[in-house]
Amino acid sequence: MESLVATAFVFALIAIVVQVAFVVVARDAAQTAVTAAARRAGRPGADFDAERIRLAADLARIVPGATDVMASIEGGPAAVTARASIDWAPPGPNLIPLTLHATATAPLVIPP
Q1: If you average pLDDT over each of 20-24, 25-29, 104-108, which comes out highest?
Q2: Which of 2, 23, 38, 46 could form a disulfide with 106 if both were Cys (CB 3.0 to 4.6 A apart)?
C-alpha cells in the first residue's frame, strides 16, 4: 500500500513539474512574439491592424497549449505597445486554468 501511495505521489509531482515547464516555455514564447510585434509596428508606415492579426496568428501557432488568443497593438506619440492575453491549457492533465499575459513597448522609428 505504501508503494502505491508513493507511486501516485511521484506521478502527481511529475505532472506538476511538466506543467510548470510548459508554462515557462509558453510564457517565454508569448513574450518573444509580443516584443517582435511591437518592434514591427513601430516602423514607419506599419499597419497596426495587420500586425495585430499577425500577432494573434503567431501566438496561436507558437505557444504550446494556446486555446484562446486576444491581441492588441496601440500607438502613442513616441511608442507602440503590444499586448496579448492567452487562455492556456497544457498538454496532458489540465490541473488549473491559466491565462498568460504579455506586454511589450517599442519606440516609434522616425526616419532621419
Answers
A1: 104-108
A2: 38
User: At what angle are helices 48-62 and 2-41 packed, to 10 degrees?
Assistant: 160
> What average pLDDT does this structure show over 59-77?
90
Architecture of the CATH domain 2-107:
Roll (3.10)
Kindly list the domain boundaries of the chain, sorted by start residue. Answer: 2-107
| Length, in residues, of the chain | 112
Alpha-carbon Rg for the chain in angstroms: 19
Report helix, strand or coil for 103: strand
Nearest to 22 by CA among 88, 112, 104: 88
Report DSSP letters for 9-26, one per residue.
Answer: HHHHHHHHHHHHHHHHHH
Quote the pLDDT of residue 19: 83
Backbone torsions φ then ψ of 33, nearest 5 degrees:
-65, -40
Q: What are the E-state strand segments in 1-112?
A: 66-75, 79-88, 98-107
